[in-house]
């Protein structure tokens, strides 16, 4: 008997719950145009305008003003945070160590440090691929009003696409640079007494060895120049 009464009671409350839900949804719907407008203006003025990538932390008032659109902003900030995390830690430590290898002799004698840095570069590449895919998948499922989508797409392109592309290019060039260094190191080690180190300079006793070294070094210099070009691009937006 009590079970029947309970079901009757629930049936009695159900229309009230439904009515409350309608009121709640209507309330959210009434604020949506203002929330959309506020979020759109914020993206345009604080994220899109200018060349630098800026992602200001939202204040409580802004979170309230943007409503559910704060989740869409979080997609941009989370991507940048994960990107920063991928490049920090072990890889940053290895890159610091590599700066001390300022001669060919030092690179030959510290081959394991170059190998370690290359392995960590490949690991970061894998992390980056995962971060970009996860972000892109979330972006693809977004349901934004058309007028806001136009603005958000620009913010996404600037923050996610641009940073992702530059990061990929940087890692690819680093990997190629490390491969060049390892190839040159192995070549120099194999020369034995046919070479002599004089500070940062390598002197060859045979022209054939010098020609081969210059060929490999040209590839290394090309990659290093490309890295410098990427670094300048990154400096312009960060």
Summarize the structure.
This protein is mainly alpha-helical and 238 residues long.
Uncertain stretches: 1-29
- Strand percentage lies at under 5%
- Major pleated sheet: 2 strands, antiparallel
Order of helices and strands: HHHHHHHEEH
* Count of beta strands: 2
**Average pLDDT score:** 86
> Looking at the structure, what is the overall shape?
elongated
N-end to C-end Cα span? 70 Å
Percentage of helical residues?
A: over 70%
Number of domains: 1
Widest beta sheet: strand line-up:
1-2
Class inferred from helices and paired strands: mainly alpha
Protein name: DUF3053 domain-containing protein
Keywords: Signal
InterPro entries: DUF3053
Describe the overall structure.
The protein contains 8 helices and 2 strands; from the N terminus they run αααααααββα. Strands 1-2 form a two-stranded antiparallel sheet. By secondary structure, the chain is mainly alpha-helical. The chain has one domain. Helix content is 82%, strand content 3%. Helix 1 packs across helix 2, helix 1 crosses helix 7 and helix 3 runs antiparallel to helix 6. The N terminus is likely disordered. The radius of gyration is 28 Å and the shape is elongated.
């Amino acid at each position: 008997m009590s079970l029947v009464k309970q079901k009757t009671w629930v049936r009695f409350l159900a229309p009230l719950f439904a009515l409350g839900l309608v009121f709640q949804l209507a309330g959210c719907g009434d604020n949506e145009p203002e929330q959309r407008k506020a979020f759109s203006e914020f993206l345009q003025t604080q994220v899109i305008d200018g060349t630098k990538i800026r992602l200001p932390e939202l204040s409580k008032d802004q979170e309230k003003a943007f409503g559910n659109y704060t989740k869409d902003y979080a997609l941009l900030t989370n991507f940048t945070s994960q990107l920063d995390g991928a490049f920090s830690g072990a890889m940053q430590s290895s890159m610091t160590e590599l700066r001390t290898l300022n001669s060919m002799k030092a690179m030959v004698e510290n081959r394991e440090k170059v190998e370690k840095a290359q392995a960590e570069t490949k690991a970061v590449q894998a992390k980056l691929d995962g971060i970009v895919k996860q972000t892109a998948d979330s972006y693809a499922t977004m349901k934004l009003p058309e007028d806001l989508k136009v603005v958000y797409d620009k913010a996404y392109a600037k923050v996610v696409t641009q940073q992702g592309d530059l990061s990929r290019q940087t890692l690819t060039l680093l990997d190629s640079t490390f491969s060049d260094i390892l190839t040159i190191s192995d070549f120099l080690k194999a020369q034995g007494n046919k070479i002599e180190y004089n500070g940062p300079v390598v002197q060859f006793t045979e022209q054939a060895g010098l020609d081969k070294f210059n060929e490999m070094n040209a590839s290394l210099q090309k990659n290093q120049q490309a890295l410098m070009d990427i670094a300048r691009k990154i400096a312009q937006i960060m």
